[in-house]
Amino acid sequence: MYKILVVDDDYGIRSIMKDSLQNEDYSVKIAESGEEGLKYIKNKDFDLVITDMVMPPGINGIELMEKALEINNDLGFIVITAYGTIKTAVEALKKGAFDFITKPFSVSQMTSRIERFFENYELKEENKKLKQELSYEKKFKRLVGKSKPMRTIYEQIEVVADSSAPVLLQGESGTGKELIAQAIHDNSSRNKKPFIRINCAAIPETLFESTLFGHEKGAFTHAIKTKKGLFEEAQDGTLLLDEISEIPISMQAKLLRVLQEEEITRVGGSKEIPINVRIIATTNRDIRKLIKEEKFRSDLYFRLNVFPIKVPPLRNRPGDIPILINHFINKFRKKYDYDHKEISQEVVDVLLQKQWPGNVRQLENLVERAILYSGDDEKLRVEHFDMDSHPINLEEEKVTDDYITIDEMEKRLILRTLKKTDNNRTKAAEILGVSVRTIRNKLSQYKEEGINIPE
Questions:
Q1: What angle, rounded to 10 degrees, do the helices at 107-139 and 11-23 form?
Q2: For residue 238, which phi and psi values (nearest 5 degrees)?
Q3: Domain residue limits, the chain
Q4: 3-state secondary structure of 91
Q5: What superfamily in CATH does domain 3-124 come from?
Q6: Mean pLDDT across the chain
Q7: Exposed, middle or buried, 257 (CB in 10 Å: 0-12/13-18/19+)?
Q8: Are 233 and 196 contacting, i.e. CB atoms less than 8 angstroms apart?
Q9: Which H or E run includes 406?
């Protein structure tokens, strides 16, 4: 509902305008002087102000407009005047009024001007939106989506990109956290410097320190030469710590010290080396829960969480699904050298109904397989899509027990997923949205319980 402020020292005009415009489904506020109108404008958002030109002894309509536009440059004005001269009208329009109307006027004359204003207003808003989308497409080439959640992400990237503040990207597996990290780097002043990514879940605990901070020759067996760590490799650039929650607790204090002191010491060395590195971390886990379980340091969390960005799951941005589908079709059409591929509306409708537990990555994999299945067929149809290739839905599980613990359900889910992936632990971890290390630790636990786990 559009909000209109009517400013006029004539009680009769104020009352008639309020009643008439409310009947047209506008939200209407009235003021009897320019001073009162300006007070309302300072404290409340309006879309349009309808003001009388002359309201003695206070400020007149043009003065009100000038002061109001300093507060809100997007505010619209229609000026009422009893002095219907060209000079008065031109002055009002030059100062920023959308239109003017002379007394006496009918309600229909006024409402037609208001309707014209809001038609123009909506057109301007649409143009503004299109310009913003074009700007986003240019700036964030790797990111796809026009939904409100994605526009929020774009806005957050613009805010934080050129700072040195650590960023913590939180979201489910497959939502595109690494692409967002890349976009932050690409739109920063560091974009000509290295962007280095490390998957914290993939580093053996014994190699963490040397991987991040480097080592001196002879620091340990097989250290046959001095080697820089990732912090030095990323100097003046950006270091992405993917799956930060998987860093061993023994390493977290050392990482915290480096972030605080902005210097590292190689393993086996004593020299402190200054570093200038922007840190971006990602996680698909609830770090606050890990803190309570004493598996993650709270001080490290607060150091990393200076600028948190919540990455939305695909199910919360369904409007982006058709855009993503077309993006992936074009990507894989070129990859597999097909001249033309298009998708039927029937398939799009089916895909819009899915919950997408695997998020954008799941959708991408589904489209790639469909391209391959379709062969020389130019149109992708339902039969080309392997709709069963998705993470298991717990609601579909047939549990015969009357009661079952969460741990037992988790065990069944992990073991069933491993069975479906032919014991491919990496694939199972991707489907379940956890790290390979988590799968490995759980399987070790199940072995201790006497469960036969295939190697």
A1: 60
A2: -130, 135
A3: 3-124, 148-310, 314-384, 394-448
A4: helix
A5: Response regulator (3.40.50.2300)
A6: 86
A7: middle
A8: yes
A9: helix 406-420
State residue 89 phi and psi, 5-degree precision.
-65, -45
Q: Is 404 helix (H, G, I), strand (E, B) or coil?
A: coil
Question: Residue 51: which H helix or E strand, with range?
Answer: strand 48-52
Residue 39: predicted pLDDT? 93
Do the beta carbons of residue 340 and residue 376 sit within 8 Å?
A: no
Residue count of the chain, please give it: 455
Q: How far, in Å, are 144, 166, 216, 256 from residue 332 at the CA level?
A: 15, 34, 45, 42
**CATH code linked to domain 394-448:** 1.10.10.60
Amino acid at 184: I
Q: Say if strands 99-102 and 342-343 run parallel, antiparallel, or are unpaired.
A: unpaired
Give me the residues paired with residue 196 across strands.
Answer: 239
Which CATH number describes the domain made up of 314-384?
Answer: 1.10.8.60
3-state secondary structure 216-281: CCCCCCCCCCCEECHHHHCCCCEEEEECHHHCCHHHHHHHHHHHHHCEECCECCCCCEECCCEEEE
Burial class (CB in 10 A: 0-12, 13-18, 19+), 174: buried
Average pLDDT over residues 425-430: 80
Query: CA neighbours within 13 Å on the CB side: how many for 2?
Result: 19
C-alpha 154/C-alpha 146 separation (Å) is 10
422-429 LR contacts (CB < 8 Å, sep 24+): 423/454
- Report the relative pairing of strands 307-310 and 167-170 from DSSP bridges: parallel
Task: Give the model confidence (pLDDT) of 402-411 as tens digits.
Answer: 455 667 777 8
- Are 80 and 71 a contacting pair, CB within 8 Å? no
Q: Looking at the whole model, is its pTM more than 0.85?
A: no
pLDDT above 50 for 393: no
Class in CATH terms, 148-310 = alpha beta
User: Fold match between 3-124 and 148-310?
Assistant: yes
